[in-house]
Write a structure and sequence with these properties.
CATH architecture of the largest domain: 6 Propeller
Number of helices: 2
Distance between the termini: 54 Å
Number of strands: 33
CATH topology of the largest domain: Neuraminidase
CATH superfamily of the largest domain: TolB, C-terminal domain
Largest sheet: 6 strands, antiparallel
Helix content: under 10%
CATH class of the largest domain: Mainly Beta
Strand content: 35-45%
């Protein structure tokens, strides 16, 4: 593991190959931050286990509370957990959260709130999409992500009812798939069943990268797991922990089509959140997963192969801050990590819990004027859709963002590999002036767009 070198009382650095990464506290005195996501408003959205949802200014670190969810009940590992935002946030300003509550016993539910940006912002109109899920003070999961097909994935722990992880009719020990209104997609593996994959113990990380879905999962003692999630696959728990390497595990894996992990941590490190990194700011981490751990007190770099189905040589970073739980990446290539030292199992410093920002301060985004001039939009003005044209081959993965007059991101979409033309829907956008920005490797192209 690479240790941090001290630069000042506030900032430390560590090397990643030829790149120097700085680590600076952004926000302090938090209480068990559980989820961090980069929002379409260019703020960090955060949950804290006690029930508070906030927006965090990534420049100043100011925490802007939105709500404390009234019926959240914390118990050991339980409380307010994962969160995700609707991908068309301007037209559908929905915030999805999962948390524990009491209802004739300890339970878990998925709830959708509606966001209003008026004033300092607020959340209202809670709508239960899936409730009554068996829960326990430990092994609650739970992360959320929304896929491009507008379905939602939700992880659940086994709630200490180990055999239920293999019961495809139970909601625990699973990755679940739902429509954004809480209904069950018609193309789920089992008709009328939210189950997407099963045989999970306590998956606490979930991310989509290069068209694939990855999850990080707590093992019991022997191995934590990084899994490639596939529909209707069995991941082995409770018979199998980690790899299929014991005689009893091998027989079960063969008989039950068990998907072995891409990577395992042995012994367990309490692996938690995971994010995908593919930005030129830290070139050594391009096409990597970055996973943070609680007991392990570290961040692990997991290089993906070109097809995303295997992991190369892993490396550990970011020691010295204690337990680490959540991680997200900004479009500018900065990485935000939360500590979890006030969760009853850590040794909190005076300023804990914190959000840390990792960045390469020497990185400057390059712009080629000639190529930038060849970045085109049509039609412009536009009403329903606009086509983006890239100037020839790009220098890396290309992300296109549409910004309103206040600079807020109102659309985000990706160019496929080798794709030069991309059609973007303008549905739900108000008439006005917008800015379209395409970030491709080390280049960035910008154009003004008028929506009628």
């Amino acid at each position: 593991m690479l240790l941090l070198s001290s630069v000042s009382a506030q900032t430390t650095t560590f090397p990643v190959g030829a790149t120097t990464v700085s680590v600076t506290p952004l926000a302090t005195n938090l209480s068990v931050p559980w989820e961090l996501i980069w929002g379409p408003d260019n703020f960090i959205w955060m949950t804290e286990r006690g029930g508070r949802i906030s927006r965090v200014n990534p420049t100043t670190g100011q925490v802007l509370p939105l709500i404390t969810v009234p019926d959240v009940v914390t118990s050991s590992e339980g409380g307010l957990l994962g969160m995700t935002l609707h991908p068309d946030f301007t037209a559908s300003p929905y915030v999805y959260i999962v948390y524990n509550y009491n209802d004739n016993g300890y339970k878990e539910k998925l709830v959708r709130y509606t966001y209003s940006a008026a004033g300092t912002g607020s959340l209202s109109n809670p709508t239960v999409l899936l409730g009554g899920i068996t829960a326990n003070s430990t092994h609650a999961g739970s992360r959320l992500i929304i896929l491009p097909d507008r379905t939602l994935l939700m992880t659940t722990g086994d709630a200490q009812q180990r055999p239920e992880a293999q019961n495809t009719g139970a909601l625990i020990g699973k990755v679940l798939r739902l429509n954004l209104d809480g209904t069950i997609p018609a193309d789920n593996p089992v008709a009328g069943n939210p189950m997407y994959s099963f045989g999970h113990r306590n998956p606490q990380g979930l991310v989509r990268a290069n068209g694939k879905i990855y999850s990080t999962e707590h093992g019991q003692d022997a191995e934590d797991e990084l899994n490639l999630i596939e529909p209707n696959r069995n991941y082995g728990w409770p018979t199998v922990e980690g790899n299929c390497n014991l005689p009893s595990e091998q027989a079960f894996c063969t008989a039950n089509n068990v998907r072995a992990p891409l990577y395992s941590w042995a012994p367990t490190v309490g692996i938690a959140g995971v994010a995908y990194y593919d930005h030129p700011a830290i070139p050594e981490w391009r096409n990597n997963l970055l996973a943070v751990s609680l007991r392990g007190n570290k961040m692990t770099q997991l290089p993906l192969t070109s097809n995303g189905e295997a992991v190369g040589n892993a490396a550990d970073f970011l020691s010295g801050f204690g337990r680490l739980r959540a991680i997200c990446v900004s479009p500018q290539g900065r990485i935000y990590v939360s500590t979890s030292n006030r969760d009853g199992r850590g040794n909190p410093a005076a300023s804990d819990d914190r959000i840390l920002v990792l960045e390469n301060r020497a990185y400057v985004l390059a712009t080629n004027n000639a190529r930038a001039a060849a970045f085109q939009l049509w039609p412009n003005p536009a009403q329903h859709t606009v086509t983006l044209h890239l100037p020839g081959s790009s220098s890396g993965a290309t992300v296109a963002t549409l910004h309103d007059a206040l600079g807020r991101v109102v659309r985000t979409t990706d160019f496929a590999a080798g794709q030069n033309d991309l059609q973007v829907s303008l549905a739900g956008l108000r008439a006005g002036v917008y800015v379209v920005r395409a970030t491709s490797g080390t280049e960035q192209f910008t154009r003004r767009l008028v929506v009628d």
